[in-house]
Amino acid sequence: MSPIQQILQRRAAEDSALLLHIASEKPSASDLAAWGRITLKRARRMLWVVKVLGRALLTKLTSRHLSYDEIDIIASGLNKLTGTDTDRVKLVDDFCEQAAKVLPHELEQHVKQTVATLTAHRNHPRLAFNKTADANNHLYFQGAGPAELVAAVETELVATANALRTDNMKFSEAMFHALVRKVLHPSGKTTDPFLPYRNCYVIVLDPTLRYHADGKVMTTTGALVDVKDLVNQELQPYGYAVAYALSTGGDYEHVGTYGVQRFFNQHQRFVGSLEHPICAYPGCDRPAKTCQAHHVQAAALGGPTLLSNYAPLCAVHNGQNDDDPSKPPKNGRIEFDPATRVPGLRRFPGDPLRYNLNPVTIKGIRRYLAYLRGEGYAASFRD
Ligand SMILES: [Zn+2]
């Protein structure tokens, strides 16, 4: 027998003896780790194996000269049978018999199959969600069910995921978005998935307005106005909404302060910079990307934070703009040409608009659209 064989056999025997001693003396995991110079994880695992098997079964296993790994495999199997009326002693006899004939990794397969057979009847399908989010505010969920059903669900999601997937998106990420879409937007409509969880501000519109259709209301003058514009207008002068609600104690309490969208979001700024590639002020060449998002009708005066009210202005020209047209003019103000929606400078009330004639502005979508319609194109360049 080679020295390696001798050492390994001696170790296997000693491992068995060690487990029996642990069963009777019940040392702490930290003592085990320190004395054996092993990791805490390994020490805890040894204690766990001893606990799962109990003294009687452990004695049986060690008397059959099983190694620590084999004993661990059998303990894992038995642990999964907790709560079943399996005859543990008979099962351990079967495992020992098997262990004498095969190698540990084959024993592991045998134990797993046996456990799967014995627990088949109680394998209900399940889906569970964690309660606590991780550091990235992600919640975990997992489940299991009949293979053919899970495969059918997967096939459905894969089709949607492939349609949703962009170039630099991992497939697993696309699968998640597919699940969200299938569950939350079965009709195919894509709305804000977080909407049901957001706080909201309820606005009752002026009683003179009549709800018309498709998000429009009719004013007393017969004009159709977008509800979205109206809501934004209601909120803009305030900037934020403070909510009070009745508490369980029966008194009104402050429950939250919510910011109103006064600033153009990234997407609006992106589309806005395509429509108007540089600062709207005549002669300025600041690219829209580095400009401020200017409300042509001032937010404080009810101007909505919508693309139809957006113009890029560099910090200097935004600072100079006369925001309130009711005050005496100082530097002039940016306004839209009503036909083309191209922004220009009106130096004094009644003056014609002056446009930024920088050649780059021709690349802007607004000017191109005016050109397509064959109207106002020349006007937008009239100085
Ligand atoms: Zn400028």
Automatic annotation (TrEMBL):
<feature type="region of interest" description="Disordered">
    <location>
        <begin position="318"/>
        <end position="337"/>
    </location>
</feature>
<feature type="compositionally biased region" description="Basic and acidic residues">
    <location>
        <begin position="324"/>
        <end position="337"/>
    </location>
</feature>
<protein>
    <recommendedName>
        <fullName>HNH nuclease domain-containing protein</fullName>
    </recommendedName>
</protein>
<dbReference type="InterPro" id="IPR003615">
    <property type="entry name" value="HNH_nuc"/>
</dbReference>
